[in-house]
Structure formats: C-alpha cells, structure tokens
Amino acid sequence: MKKQLIYFISGIILVLFSAPLGRETLFTIYRHKNLASEALTLLKCSANAYVLTGIMLFVLGLVKYYVENSSKP
Fold first, then answer.
1. Residues 6+ apart with CB under 8 A from 12
2. Is the pTM of this model over 0.85?
3. DSSP-derived 3-state class of residue 73
4. Phi, psi of 63 (to 5 degrees)
5. Domain locations in the chain as residue ranges
6. Which of 14, 28, 47, 49 has its CA 20 to 30 A from that of 56?
C-alpha cells in the first residue's frame, strides 16, 4: 500500500502544481526567444502535459492497488 500511496500523492501534487511547473518550463526552454504571439498556447500545452502526467501517475497507483487487493484470497 505504501508504493501506491506514493503514486497517488505524487499524481495529485503534479496536477495541482501543473500551471506553475508549465510556466517555469516554458520560461526555461524559451528564455532568449520572443514568444509574444505563441506564449499562451505553449503555456497551455506545457501545463496540460503536466496534468496528463499527474493523472497517469494517479491511475497507475489505482491499478496497482486493485491488482494487489484482487490477488489476495
């Protein structure tokens, strides 16, 4: 159960902090470029990537939890 809890918590934290992480990733990668017209689109895409990663971690924890509990007699 401890490993599944790590997946649950890390997935939730990643989803909650997806916007600041996406913004920092965008500013780190495109630091010296002028992105006036594409900045909002790139920001949404990078934040959505972190949200999807968090959801996948959470689902991985759920699957591992159900597999562990269903294999017990």
1. 54, 58
2. no
3. coil
4. -65, -45
5. 2-70
6. 28
Q: What is the pLDDT of residues 20-63, one digit of tens each?
A: 988 888 888 888 888 777 877 888 888 899 999 999 999 998 88
Q: Which residues of 7-27 are buried (b: 16+ CB within 10 A; e: fewer)?
A: bbebbeebbeebbebbeebbe
- The residues, any chain, with a CB within 8 Å of residue 69's CB and separated by 6 or more, are none
Residue 48 is encoded by which pair of tokens? 């959505």
In 3D space, the residue among 52, 59, 65 whose CA is nearest the CA of residue 15 turns out to be 52
Element (H, E) at 39: helix 39-70
